[in-house]
Structures are given as structure tokens and as C-alpha cells.
Specification:
- By secondary structure, the protein is of the alpha/beta class.
- It has 15 helices and 13 strands.
- The protein folds into three domains: about 160 residues, lambda repressor-like DNA-binding domains (434 Repressor (Amino-terminal Domain), Orthogonal Bundle), CATH 1.10.260; about 80 residues; about 170 residues, Rossmann fold (3-Layer(aba) Sandwich), CATH 3.40.50.
- Strands 3, 4, 5, 6, 8, 9, 10, 11, 12 and 13 form a ten-stranded mixed sheet that branches. Strands 1-7-2 form a three-stranded antiparallel sheet, with helices on one face.
- It starts with a strand and ends with a helix.
- The relative contact order is 0.11.
């Protein structure tokens, strides 16, 4: 069994409307010229079923929508006559079904597919989220959030999740990448340190349960959403309906992004943790080059901070390196909401050949990037000045590079405020 639902307060989730409208117009054009042959099943019985499914829509309501008389609807339901092709198509649009569904299927077989529409109250709860983009995002996100939960003493965590929609079509179509957010519902007795805790207020939802969602899903699932939509329209105040639409439109606004890239062991995780003040926000894999995903962190709903997997791992096979390069370039290409990539360079070693390759990739993708020197507490002032000068000289050869260099030390908290200030400026752009 699955449940589809829609919050009837202000915070209505985007996915409800997305799936509803995507599935509304099903298989109509290909069937237009087959109408004369469609006589097998009871059209009238199916029409009655669809009316019941849609909050007992009256014959008068259908008649008004199709600009016909109520008597005409009655004759259709009694199989005394059939609608003209234009009116049949209008019925399909009204009930989100195809001509085959309407005239050939036995829709009454789905009478038990739904439970009665009900109003459910979801109590307030606290949660921690983790978002990732990868070829297997759901497992990656859930595995990570489950690990986080167990590290904080919750051996049987309650986990929910949803799609992360902010991907380019190239990522989806060419590289088969998807995004997913997993959330750990915090038990009352657990107050984890170092993690951003979000809170969901008590909310009411309108919901229907679908017992067999994959039995003719092009009818069942869209009509589940439409049942909820009709409930909101007919039985709730108009301002609720307005809020519903407004929230959906607002949720389409994509947040800007900044990203952090660097060689394995360059100190990227330590820097992210120092920036956010969360000691365990970003973690590294025990094996360099093993992490092959993009990790998203929400910065107060102003920016997404993207933790890119480390590169330059010596132990990784060539096939893994090429896979990493394809994934990263797919992320960078044509990403207008990516405001800057902060490229981390170990101050003790300076720019290496693999760093140059990444810089060339960023130049090719026309992505603005800025060098951040890490671990500056490990070298002398003279050595730091030398590496800054050498880096500055190299940057002149790269058109997408930002001219300013930010020296940092996560351990000594040096340069962290300067980097925060740079990010704050980007958040206001």
C-alpha cells in the first residue's frame, strides 16, 4: 500500500502538484481515431465510477463543465447513447484518463483501490537531513543518514526521504544522476551536537491510501491526487487553495550554490566543518577516492554548499578516475546557479598537475573559481608568501579564476572569517 497526500496548511509539498499535472493528460492523441471501435465495455458504468472517485461529483457539475444538459449525462451513464468524440476527450481531460480507460477498461474493478479520503494530523517533530547527488542517490543518502543516526545512539532510526529536484537535464539524461534527501527523525531523548536540526510543526494532511498503486497507475495515481485537489477546492477556504498554488510557485525557485573541490586529504572536510561550526558535518571516506557523490548542505535557505568528492587519489583505477571526471563535468556544465567553486590547494605542496587539470576543466565549463590555500599553519610565513606568489602567477593563465587567494588554517581558525565573508557576499548576489 502507498499513500498519497497533500498538506492542507501553507507548507504544501511540490511533489504533489508536480506528479499531478505531469500525469493529467494521458494517451489521448494516439487514440482519437479509434473512438468508433470502442464499444466493448460499459461507458456509463465507468463514468459513474469516476464521479464517485472524485468526491461524488454530481451529474450537474459534469454537465456544466462540458456545456451539456444533465439529462445528457444521465443518458450516458445509462448507456442510452455515447458522447461525441469532442465531449469524450473533454471527459478524459476532466478525469485524467485515456479513451481506452473510459470506454474499454472496467474501472469499477478499482472500487476498492482507495480508502476513504481522510484528514491526518502529523505531530511536530525534529529532524536532520542529508542530501546527495549520485547515480544511486537514494541508497547513498539513506545509508549516510542511518550511519549518522547510529553514531548518535539511535540503533533503529526512523528515516524518511524525498527527491532533490535541482539537477540539470544533462546530469539526468546523459549521466543518469539523480538527487535525494534523507531525513532522520530525532527521538525526543537525542540532542545531537554539531548537526543542523530542523523542526516540522504539527500539520494536517488530506490523504488517500492506494492499495494497489501499480495496477493501471495512469488512472489510479493521478485520480488519487485529483481527489485531494478537489477536496481542497470544494471543501476548504479559498485562501488555502491560493496558498497551495503560491507555495508551489515559490518552491520552484532554485537556491544558488557554492562548491568546494580539492585533492584527497587537502583538508576540505575540516574546512567545511570550521566554516559551519559543525565538527561532524562533513566526513571523509576511510579510503581516498572512494566517495563518488556530491553532498549538499543547506546554508540557512540562502545557498547550497556542495561538497565535491576529492580527486587525485593514487589508489583509484583509471576507470574510477574517468567516472569521477564525467560526473564532475556533468555537474559543472551549464549550471547557472553555481556562483563559485572554491578550489582547495595544500599550501605545503602548491598547485600540482592534477589541480591544473581541474582548473582547465573549470575554465572549459566557464565556472568562476577561487583558490583557497589550506593548512597554512604547517609552513613558515616565508614559504607561504612564496606559494601565494607562485599561485598568483599560475592564475593569470586561467580565465575563469578569481584573482584573490584566501589562505586558511582550519586548525588555527585562520582565514575562516575571510572565507565566510566571501560566501556571504555570494549569498546576496
Amino acid at each position: 500500500m502507498t499513500t498519497v497526500g497533500c498538506e492542507i496548511t501553507e507548507n504544501v509539498k511540490l511533489i504533489v502538484v508536480e506528479r499531478f499535472y505531469v500525469l493529467c493528460y494521458n494517451f489521448l492523441v494516439s487514440l482519437l481515431y479509434q473512438f468508433e471501435r470502442i464499444t466493448d465495455m460499459s461507458f456509463g458504468k465507468n463514468l459513474q465510477h469516476l464521479r464517485r472517485l472524485n468526491r461524488n461529483m454530481t451529474q450537474e457539475t459534469i454537465a456544466e463543465k462540458l456545456d451539456v444538459s444533465r439529462q445528457t449525462i444521465s443518458k450516458w451513464e445509462n448507456d442510452e447513447c455515447k458522447p461525441e468524440i469532442e465531449k469524450a476527450i473533454e471527459l478524459c481531460n476532466l478525469f485524467n484518463c485515456s479513451l481506452d480507460n473510459l470506454f474499454r477498461d472496467d474501472l469499477s474493478a478499482y472500487d476498492e483501490a482507495y480508502s476513504n479520503l481522510r484528514i491526518e494530523t502529523v505531530p511536530a517533530f525534529r529532524y536532520v537531513i542529508y542530501t546527495t547527488i549520485s547515480v544511486n542517490p537514494e541508497c547513498d543518502a539513506i545509508d549516510r543518514i542511518r550511519k549518522i543516526a547510529k553514531e548518535h545512539g539511535d540503533e533503529n532510526p526512523k528515516i524518511i526521504g524525498w527527491d532533490f529536484p535541482y539537477l540539470s537535464q544533462e546530469q539526468i539524461n546523459v549521466y543518469n544522476m539523480h538527487g535525494y534527501t534523507a531525513a532522520w527523525i530525532l527521538p525526543e531523548n537525542i540532542k545531537p551536537d554539531g548537526l543542523e536540526i530542523k523542526e516540522q510543526k504539527t500539520q494536517k494532511y488530506a490523504a488517500v491510501s492506494i492499495k494497489s498503486p501499480f495496477e493501471n497507475p495512469f488512472v489510479i495515481i493521478p485520480n488519487g491526487y485529483k481527489t485531494i485537489d478537489e477536496y481542497m477546492r470544494l471543501y476548504k477556504k479559498e485562501e488555502i487553495r491560493s496558498n497551495f498554488i503560491n507555495i508551489v510557485i515559490e518552491s520552484l525557485n532554485i537556491l544558488d550554490e557554492i562548491a568546494f573541490a580539492g585533492r584527497s586529504n587537502v583538508g576540505k572536510s575540516s574546512l567545511i566543518n570550521a566554516l559551519t561550526g559543525k565538527k561532524t558535518l562533513a566526513k571523509t571516506s576511510g579510503t581516498p577516492g572512494r566517495t563518488q557523490q556530491l553532498n549538499y548542505f543547506n546554508l540557512a535557505d540562502k545557498l547550497y554548499m556542495v561538497d565535491m568528492p576529492g580527486y587525485g587519489f593514487a589508489q583509484a583505477p583509471e576507470s574510477l578516475v574517468k567516472k569521477w571526471q564525467k560526473m564532475i563535468f556533468a555537474y559543472l556544465q551549464g549550471r547557472v546557479n553555481l556562483k563559485r567553486v572554491f578550489l582547495l590547494i595544500d599550501s605545503r605542496h602548491g598547485i600540482k598537475k592534477v589541480d591544473t587539470e581541474i582548473m582547465e576543466m573549470l575554465d572549459k565549463a566557464a565556472v568562476n573559481y577561487q583558490i583557497v590555500l589550506t593548512k597554512t599553519d604547517k609552513i613558515s610565513a616565508i614559504a607561504l608568501t612564496k606559494v601565494k606568489n607562485e599561485t598568483q602567477k599560475t592564475l593569470k593563465e586561467h580565465p575563469a579564476a578569481h584573482i584573490d587567494i584566501i589562505p586558511t588554517s582550519s586548525e588555527k581558525n585562520k582565514g575562516i572569517d575571510e572565507l565566510r565573508a566571501e560566501i556571504a557576499i555570494l549569498a546576496q548576489i
